[in-house]
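Morning. Coffee machine broken again, so started the prediction first thing and wrote up yesterday's gels while waiting. Chain of 440 residues, entered below exactly as on the submission form.
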Amino acid sequence: MTSKQKNSAVRPATGRLGILTPGLGAVATTFMAGVESIRRGRSKPIGSLTQMATIRLGKRTDNRSPLIKDFIPLASLDDIVFGAWDPIPDDALTAARKAGVLDERDLAPVAEFLQAITPMPAVFDNHYVTRINGANVKKGKNKRELGEALRKDIRDFKAKHALDRLVIVWCASTEIYLKPGPQHATIAAFEKAMESNDDQIAPSMLYAWAALMEGVPFCNGAPNLCVDIPALIELANEKGVPISGKDFKTGQTWLKTVIAPGIKARMLGLKGWYSTNILGNRDGEVLDDPASFKTKEESKLSVLHTILQPDKYPDLYKDFSHVVRINYYPPRGDNKEGWDNIDIVGWMNYPMQIKVNFLCRDSILAAPIVLDVALFSDFAHRAGMKGIQEWLSFYYKSPMTAAGLQPEHDLFIQQTKLKNTLRHLMGEEQITHLGLEYYA
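Came back before lunch.
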């Protein structure tokens, strides 16, 4: 009996899965073009755990390490249908060419496919993202009406493409910084604030509300407050829908969650960590606005304190300096460059330094994350899971957690939690790495 047969509580991934993205920019078009390229056998799904990673089952001596996609019932790439909303009316091919992430040699073979993906009018307000303007925008007398229009889009898209299930992944820009307030405390307060056009109800929250009302899992790839408010967490639990977020962990922060656990594991001290970035894509332009950068900064700054636990290790990490800078530099496009200077302290208080220069491609790193969180969220929904999916923290800079809990940022603990969740759901023993003869 295979693991897939062991847990009959997980519904099979039959039929077609729609993946809708608020935002049809660099990340979304790179994701869509990449999946279609993989479906045509032109490329491999590099960077995707759902497609390329294995998972060990049982004892090491059992020699059971199937691919994750062969272990759990995931939707097939061939069954995925794409859709999007965007305030700019460009089709996916035009948007991909403007984004400049993929070369024409990679776009040309899938050009007709991308050209057929046109964005639905977006719920968009320049107040929340000041550096973007577009005419492909919904109109409504209030935010409740706009939210209902999104719900209709979801229903119509599902019917038009004969879909069995949907997932929504936020791939749009970073909104201005908002703090949770009384408008976000309960479903009733939230919906009342929608009806009164309260400024504390951002567009991303309307997408999340619409998704949950339609029973669709929602994943937040930006640092916006979005679904991470009590009202929408309550709604997700009430509707039995998985949610996760926030802010895809791609470049510099991903490396922080690799390096910082190594420093802590050796009980080395940290005096300071200076990070600076340059990028020139739409994300960089949006983050050039101080209000939007504040949202991103909060997401990036939280990582080190949570990993290093200065309250528990004051001799090593008390009052370390942590500075993050992002500079918009148009010539660089999507090819982001990050510099990190890390001042560490060793035996007898002698200083040392680590220097990191990461020349990454932002959307190339983000695209497989979009695929994974969509497929895993669909799986979680079919497994009867609801509310915050902490086991997907692996993919996020600011992972959502239950009230009162600190997020786990250590990448390797996150990976263990992800795989153990899959083992648990499929009726396999969780691996704790105890027992010298069996585990390592």
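The chain has 17 helices and ten strands. Going to sketch it on the whiteboard this afternoon.
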